[in-house]
């Protein structure tokens, strides 16, 4: 670490120290009160609200100048811990004890050598407590009809741990020139009185503009994207400018998808979105039934980004030698994850479905 970086960390620690002034334990952010709380002696401390309006929320950063961003410290002393079992890396407060891995539950954790990482400029703080997450998880797993009872008992909601996962958001002014063919259906009757549908095709071209606001891209590769979508959306507008107080007491995963790779992914997803929007525009403007051969090129202007830490409660349990992971959105309480499936219950459901179909066919179709 350079001399300048040491000075930056030292100055940041003067602004905030994760040590409880009463008992010297590590204090943590409390979602229930929005304050810093010591879990041992009960000491509470308010988090100062910035006087300047622009300092209250995460600011958009110029994508073109991203290389000039030189802040690589987290604003308070941290340590990186690596799990020997699954190789997960998490970042803790320097005073926080790493007792088990939040991803696989293993207690084979060890401190890794320090490494500079780009600091986030925004945080969506936890609004759901671990107790509320546990209750939501219990209701969710209880409603999984195909999950074996033994698996439901094994899923302990008290195993939840709060983690801030890294995300990029991107804004862009898009301008697209397009060409396509659109068709209108019409019904034709032949000499024998039979009807068929024919399509008249026309060519079109045009210009489409749209401002893309806060397109979200996960900056971690640890989870299946399908699982991540189960707990979305997040209330991105309800973010706060990064302060180390908000992440105190929680684990924080550093990004594994860099800014450029994040933007590359965002461009592909934005392209798919624009394809759907332009298709809808052509159908509406020309009263078309179908659109085909759509081709377009898009310019992105005034690209900005934010690096946000989003709150998630994690849990995992082992059932028949397999680990099942679950997530709870730390803002909304939405639960997502995979659950084991009982073949017997699936078989019963299939049989019941077939019986219902058979009854419907007998009374409404056969007659």
From TrEMBL:
Give the highest taxon in the source lineage. Bacteria
Keyword Transmembrane attributed: yes
Q: Which residues cross the membrane?
A: 344-365
Q: Which keywords accompany this UniProt record? A: Membrane, Transmembrane, Transmembrane helix
What name is this protein filed under? Answer: Replication restart DNA helicase PriA
Please tell me the species this chain comes from: Lysinibacillus macroides
| Organism ancestry | Bacteria, Bacillati, Bacillota, Bacilli, Bacillales
